[in-house]
């Protein structure tokens, strides 16, 4: 699966790619065209795709348990639509212009955090986050934020709307090294926390009452999972736009491969989600070269039929949700 | 040494659902909670396993305040098989039962040989050895119930709470489930809908109506025609079970309603003779 990283740099031979990487790691970079292509353009792009793929898969897996719904995805909780509002405001109206190249990321992170806080506050009832309320509040507030985005586009400059559309569909085209550390650290921190909660996630998959009977602090766990997944999804959206389907489909594919025990699903999901996104991005920039296909189109075209095929082969797995 | 409820009251959404309920579940006993739909049986059980918080009163486990225990410590003492269990993502039977080990394990601790032995024992004990690698969602209702009991056994608790364990099960699985539970030798507190079944298996029953206990004691003294009329507003005949002498309910129709004619009966129209061949 990690082979995807090597394949992702195709037109150069794999040996040349590793040569460049090795020379940089050794601290003696060569000054060649191949070096520039690999180190400055391709490698950060591939790594960013891998991190985002892993983050979206992980967030999707956890959200599906959090709301006990197999149709849930990481954007269910309003993160993506909030981020759109922020990014659109930046792209169309030059908000946060003082931040320069970081303005779009900052705008979308702020939007995502705002949406997350709104969903959290609205769906809080009594002592905790009930799954149904979480879904409904997420869906309703997402719709509201999408209307705000539409309103901004309507009010904005027609030329700029194309860049908004492209952003909304997601791309890794603007990947640079400085973009990498934050999503990587976010993913790593989230994974460490989630791997300690593998058993708790399994218990939560039994339902909140059964989880309580198994000695889980359900309210606290739900709150933590909500924050962790929203942050992961928010950071992913900030660096790559809204890439649909990965967070919905990959967790299901992984469950079909290794079962539902989250102590296996989470680590396998990271590898699989990363590989899938790297390959998807590879297709996105080669299939209609020299133009770029939005990655969201690719992920949907691959993801949807794959999932339908798998569901039809193992009908019982999702029997309870029908 | 027992589970004890003292003057327990529970409010949900500002309404008092359970009011001043107090009883003791002696160690090793099979205690039944009876009562009409919405009488507060499930709420009492859910308060014991921390879904609801009591508005007043106390829950004592062997004399110590149950709610002062850490959740995982309480879960090592009290396991639950709840009503209407659904699973969104399928787990195998082995994985399901292993989830029962949750309160015994630290965050990063792996399943060790002891855990596997306990899980295998639990699965054998409920007679599901041949189902170990099946997906839970592919099982029948009775098999699912047995797997959930195995999960509770793997939890290693000495108290088992059952919320209407025989709901949706056919008569064979109803009996099997109750026999299985009563043979476990642990303390059982169960909300039970079927009063005749409760009488057959429970040592003690408590009858709840409108969130209050209106009778408690051996089934014989609680399950009477008068009590049933009082608690359920239903007119029933109570007879002695021919095997056990426990009370057995026979439903009756409203007075003045003619029963449906019985084909083949002495006064019925009868069937053509060749239909029996």
Write the layout of secondary structure elements.
The complex is a heterodimer of chains A (322) and B (277).
Chain A: H1 3-7, H2 14-25, H3 33-66, H4 79-93, H5 103-123, E1 124-125, E2 128-129, H6 131-155, H7 158-169, H8 181-196, H9 198-205, H10 208-213, H11 218-240, H12 246-258, H13 262-286, H14 295-313
Antiparallel strand pairs in A: 1-2
Helix pairs in contact in A: 2-3, 3-8, 3-11, 3-12, 3-13, 4-5, 4-6, 4-7, 4-11, 5-6, 5-11, 8-11, 9-13, 12-13, 12-14, 13-14
Chain B: E1 2-12, E2 15-26, E3 30-34, H1 41-48, E4 56-61, E5 64-65, H2 71-77, E6 78-81, H3 93-99, H4 113-125, H5 141-154, E7 159-163, H6 171-182, E8 187-191, H7 195-201, E9 204-209, E10 212-217, H8 219-222, H9 225-232, E11 236-240, E12 247-251
Parallel strand pairs in B: 3-8, 3-9, 6-7, 7-8
Antiparallel strand pairs in B: 1-2, 1-4, 4-5, 9-10, 11-12
Helix pairs in contact in B: 3-4, 3-5, 4-5, 5-6
Structural key phrases:
heterodimer, A: 322 residues, mainly alpha, ABC transporter involved in vitamin B12 uptake, BtuC, two-stranded antiparallel sheet, globular, disordered N terminus, B: 277 residues, alpha/beta, Rossmann fold, six-stranded mixed beta sheet, four-stranded antiparallel beta sheet, 9 helices, 29% helix, 26% strand
CATH topology of chain A: ABC transporter involved in vitamin B12 uptake, BtuC
Under CATH, the topology of chain B can be stated as Rossmann fold
Shape of chain A: globular
Q: Could you give the count of β-strands of chain A?
A: 2
The total beta strand count of chain B reads 12
SS element count, helices of chain A? 14
Question: What oligomeric state do the depicted chains represent?
Answer: heterodimer
Largest interface comes to: A-B, 34 and 36 residues
Q: How many alpha or pi helices of chain B?
A: 9
Distance between the termini of chain B: 62 Å
The first-level CATH class of chain A is given as Mainly Alpha
The shape of chain B, in one word, is globular
Largest sheet of chain B: 6 strands, mixed
Radius of gyration of chain A: 20 Å
């Amino acid at each position: 699966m990690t082979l995807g990283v090597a394949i992702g740099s195709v037109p150069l031979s794999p040996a040349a790619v590793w040569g460049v990487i090795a020379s940089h790691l050794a601290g003696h970079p060569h000054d060649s065209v191949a070096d520039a292509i690999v180190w400055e353009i391709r490698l950060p792009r591939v790594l960013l795709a891998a991190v985002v793929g892993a983050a979206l898969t992980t967030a999707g897996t956890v959200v599906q348990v959090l709301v006990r719904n197999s149709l849930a995805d990481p954007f269910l909780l309003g993160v993506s639509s909030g981020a759109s509002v922020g990014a659109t405001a930046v792209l169309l109206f030059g908000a946060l212009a003082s931040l320069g190249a970081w303005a779009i990321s900052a705008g979308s992170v702020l939007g995502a955090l705002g949406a997350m806080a709104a969903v959290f506050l609205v769906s809080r009832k009594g002592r905790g986050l009930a799954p149904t309320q979480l879904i409904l509040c997420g869906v309703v507030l997402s719709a509201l934020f999408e209307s705000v985005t539409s309103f901004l586009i309507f009010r904005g400059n027609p030329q700029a709307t194309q860049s908004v559309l492209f952003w909304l569909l997601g791309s890794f085209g603007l990947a640079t090294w400085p973009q990498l550390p934050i999503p990587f650290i976010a993913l790593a921190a989230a994974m460490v926390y989630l791997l300690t909660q593998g058993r708790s996630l399994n218990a939560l998959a039994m339902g909140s009452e059964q989880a309580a009977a198994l000695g889980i602090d359900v309210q606290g766990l739900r709150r933590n999972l909500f924050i962790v997944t929203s942050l992961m999804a928010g950071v992913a959206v900030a660096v790559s736009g809204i890439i649909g389907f990965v967070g919905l489909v990959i967790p299901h594919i992984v469950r079909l491969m290794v079962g539902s025990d989250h102590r296996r699903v989470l680590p396998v999901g990271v590898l699989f989600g990363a590989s899938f996104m790297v390959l998807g991005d590879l297709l996105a920039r080669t299939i209609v070269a020299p133009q770029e296909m939005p990655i969201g189109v690719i992920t949907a075209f691959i993801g949807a039929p794959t999932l339908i095929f798998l569901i039809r082969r193992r009908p019982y797995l999702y029997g309870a949700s029908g | 040494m027992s589970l004890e409820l003292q003057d327990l009251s529970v409010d949900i959404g500002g309404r008092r659902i359970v009011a001043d309920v107090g009883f003791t579940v002696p160690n090793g006993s099979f205690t039944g909670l009876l009562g009409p739909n919405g009488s507060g049986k499930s709420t009492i059980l859910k308060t014991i396993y921390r879904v609801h918080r009591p508005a007043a009163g106390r829950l004592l486990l062997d004399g110590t305040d149950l709610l002062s225990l850490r959740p995982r410590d309480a879960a090592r003492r009290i396991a639950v098989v709840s009503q209407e269990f659904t699973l969104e993502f399928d787990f195998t039977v082995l994985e399901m039962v292993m989830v029962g080990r949750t309160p015994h394990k630290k965050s990063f601790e792996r399943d060790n040989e002891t855990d596997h032995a306990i899980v295998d024992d639990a699965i054998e004990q409920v007679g599901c050895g041949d189902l170990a690698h099946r997906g839970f969602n592919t099982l029948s209702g009775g098999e699912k119930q047995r797997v959930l009991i195995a999960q509770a056994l793997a939890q290693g608790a000495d108290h088992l709470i059952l919320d209407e364990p025989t709901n949706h099960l056919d008569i064979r699985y109803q009996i099997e489930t109750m026999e299985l539970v009563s043979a476990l030798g642990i303390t059982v507190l169960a909300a039970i809908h079927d009063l005749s079944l409760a009488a057959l298996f429970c040592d003690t029953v408590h009858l709840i109506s409108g969130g209050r206990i209106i009778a408690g004691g051996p089934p014989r003294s609680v399950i009477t025609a008068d009590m049933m009329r009082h608690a359920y507003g239903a007119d029933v005949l109570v007879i002695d079970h021919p095997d056990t002498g426990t009370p057995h309910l026979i439903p009756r129709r409203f007075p003045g309603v003619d029963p449906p004619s019985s084909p083949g009966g002495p006064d019925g129209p009868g069937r053509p003779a060749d239909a029996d061949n």
